[in-house]
From TrEMBL:
It comes from the Eukaryota. GO terms for cellular component: mitochondrial outer membrane; transferase complex. This is Probable E3 ubiquitin ligase complex SCF subunit sconB. CDD domains: WD40. It comes from Aspergillus rambellii. Gene3D superfamilies: 1.20.1280.50, YVTN repeat-like/Quinoprotein amine dehydrogenase. InterPro entries: F-box-like_dom_sf, F-box_dom, WD40/YVTN_repeat-like_dom_sf, WD40_PAC1, WD40_repeat_CS, WD40_repeat_dom_sf, WD40_rpt. Residues 116-125 have a biased composition (Polar residues).
Amino acid sequence: MHPRKEPSRIKAIVSERSRQAAEIVAPKPMTHEAQPEPKQHDLTFSASQDTEYAADDVSQPQTTDSASQLTLVDNVVAQDMCLPSPSLSPVAAMNALHADSSFESAEDPENETDSSFEQNDAQFTDSLPRGALKSRVPVIIAPESDGFPVPSRIPKASTLMDIPNVLDFFDSVPEELKTYLIYHLLRRCPKPTLHFVADVVNPALKCDFLTLLPLELSLNIVKYFDAQTMCRAAQVSKKWRHIINSDEKSWKELFDRDGYVLPEGELARAIREGWGWQFPNGNADYEKDISMSALIKPDPESSSAPALSPLAGPSERSSSVNRRPKRKACTRVSSRKFSKRKISSSGTDQSDSSDWKKEASAAEGPYAAASAAAAAVPYPDIGISSLRGLHLYKSLYQRHHSIHRGWMKPGVKPRHIAFRAHDRHVVTCLQFDTDKILTGSDDTNINVYDTKTGVLRATLEGHEGGVWALEYYGNTLVSGSTDRSVRVWDIERARCTQVFHGHTSTVRCLQIVLPAEVGKRPDGTPEMMPKEPLIITGSRDSNLRVWKLPKPGDPGYYQSSPHVDDADCPYFVRVLTGHQHSVRAIAAHGDTLVSGSYDCTVRVWKISTGETLHRLSGHSLKVYSVVLDHKRNRCISGSMDNMVKVWSLETGSILYNLEGHTSLVGLLDLKCDRLVSAAADSTLRIWDPESGQCKSTLSAHTGAITCFQHDGQKVISGSDRTLKMWDVRTGECVRDLLTNLGGVWQVKFNDRRCVAAVQRDGLTYIEVLDFGASRDGVPNDQLGRRIVVNRWGQEVSDTDEDYDLSDG
């Protein structure tokens, strides 16, 4: 073919192909009888064909003749349905992008694109479903000429008018390709644009499920949170804060689950003083009494307290406030009227407090207590108004959690009071609560002290020998003595109400056994054992005795001598015989009793019948301590043979021999899935009761361990000259609580206080360390220093000659 005729030939071919393309694109008229449904993507081609056309297009001769250019289809319908050229194929575009290694100038930080897009390009392409790049991409192809397809290229300058067509095209492609296109669009975006996209996309992907769900369902979700998650969730938004804080039931369950105990009267005090409205911050802050401020400065917008549910939302609270009738704000209170309003010593209005007192007394759950708190202090002017809300049990949890953690913080200083007790005699037993401290001594007396002030309330006299065991429940105290008697006392009235005889030697140990759930009956109700509270005593006469615990108000009973028939005693139940030597230690739960004896055996008893279930033999020397692991149906014993043994209560066989101590193991304590043993070798050991593995050895004392107690966080132990506190998790000694001592007789602690009976300079002292004093507003000058008080609670010098001990 002659070269000069080539343009004319191409022109003719292009004209013919354009006409045919127009016929393909343009819609054909349909008859009324048969009009098929419109079909999308009738023209589909594979990626291999698409690449072939692109390569063939490069091999075609180029010309600048305007006649050789393809003309646009002059048809509105055809223009609306025109399809992209092969150059817009995702594969061709991807190949072109790979040929160009840079998208924007690296010198312009505003237009710099994220390199992570480039690194993940191949990985993203490979992750697309097979055939995604081949699927339904509409391309117009001109008919073949001389066996080669000629692509239809319609060069056109892009304008803003093309944006709707681009969006329509994006809507028409499959979901897989939409993801692919968005990916490559984002690759071409500068960072400011990516930030804008992130600001739009991120909120769209988030869902505030607590706000969208009904409140009941939200609370059902929240109850699975732990304390840390609850506090974090309360910081998300005001709505979340309200849901979390007002969920009194979940906070009460967390309070109980973490082992915190409400002291007697603390809940009533929290309701009365408005603790549920406060958020003390830090160790130096504390819960204040805001009842007076709420009483004297009522809400000027209000005339009466609304009965709001603790679950009422902020909008409900605000709407309730807005519906109240307005009145003029009072700038002062009439002295005449105020004098008629009798203010009690607790700081509440007696005439107005009857409502919340009734609610508090009738409270059977956390929400009832919260309602009483809302009625007690209805107008708290505290904190930010938009964040104000009642959170009674969260406040109680925060208080106890702060006190609990304060033990382990060196910067937290306790209030330390000390007072003399029992002259120079040994304190053989000690128990206390937030109200009182009871001590038994070999001077035959039992003393009752005020826990907060150290005031000597009473001295219980009656035993004729040293008191070696005591335990109390409520207002009833039971004591055992070397005079072989068991006495029952009314603590408040400081008088003995019953005296039991029967043992023929020293009563060495005793326990009050309360009914506990031991299983389920066929009807699903819990089975409780024992049926009523019991007293179990162990003696050097090798026997154990069981009595009913007298109830408050029962008539007095005084058994004159051990020779009186047991049948004459209305409280006597039975005698447990079997040991051949002194009974040194006992432990009971439900219907099971475990006793350790100097006959080197441990016996397991069924309390309800008195029968011996197992006689556990294995120790080679005297048994000094036993504990009952009713959770695993096991018992544990410590002996003079240096061994700690773990026994199965089901089979009576030995499970583990816990070796490590090199001297008498005289003390055992099992709590919070940790067994702690203390020995005369000056060490304590922490064991896993499940596996018998030794977790830590606490070795810093220089003498035999005389007393200790532990919980899941700490161990407090007494030895020769010090009282030490240990971290259970690490086994490290955290601090010395008391130093320069002559001896440590007894130690006990609860959530906030540690009480120890010690010897200083030949005299016996009771030392009280209060780690929660700062939460009660005690001044800093009274923290961290030892304050000696006399029997009336007055601070005195440690060498004060006026310190009268004649009655204590």
